[in-house]
Amino acid sequence: MPKVLIVHTNVTRYQGTTDPTGLWLGESAEFVDELQKVGIDYDFVSPKGGFVPLDPRGMKYTNESILTIYEQPDYVQRGLVATLKPSDINPADYVAIYYTGGHGVMWDFPDNPELQTIAREIYNHGGYLASVCHGIAGLLRIKYDDGQYLIAGKKVTGFTTAEEIIAGKKKVVPFLNQEVATQNGAQFVQKRFYKPFAVQDGQLITGQNPFSVREVTKRLIPALQK
């Protein structure tokens, strides 16, 4: 059965600081929760493979469903301890790729050529590219063979500049997702800060912030079930 590939970060800190970051747990766990409800299989990959750190700030935003996934030994082993490396992945095995967030992704998602190739191949055989919050960083610089950005001319969303300011991280992150998306030709759309919101443009499905995971799955899962 075709599977979904979930991408986690390996970055443990805001670069140049001792401030820890990593995966925002809910952005992965809520997604897995929805896949499990409908019996869609999944794998986890990270830029380096192996260990995935958790963003401590994200642990303040857990609930019963998130913690239930976090307590599953399979989730811990495959998603946090021993994620696959990009070289382990055959894109033909997947019908979608989903980029999770947490500020760590800002450093190891945007310029990873192996992940870009995987995503491009999934997209080219009719699969879906999805992200939530900072996870859009993994989509920003994917290019077609002719050099055109894949997001050019498409509606996308992600963690906004306003939300970055509210989070107090505007001066720490290496770039602003909203600015780069616009620079690379996308039509960046958004709702009021920290409100659930997702947008679909063909095979591209993106969510604005940590509270938008299930808005992404509401669009992705029906598409995969067709």
TrEMBL record:
Any matching Pfam family: DJ-1_PfpI
Ranges annotated as spanning the membrane: none
The keyword Cell cycle is annotated on this UniProt entry: no
Gene3D superfamilies: 3.40.50.880
Keyword Ubl conjugation: no
Signal peptide (residue range): none
DJ-1/PfpI domain location: 30-220
Family, as annotated: Belongs to the peptidase C56 family. HSP31-like subfamily.
The protein's name: Peptidase C56
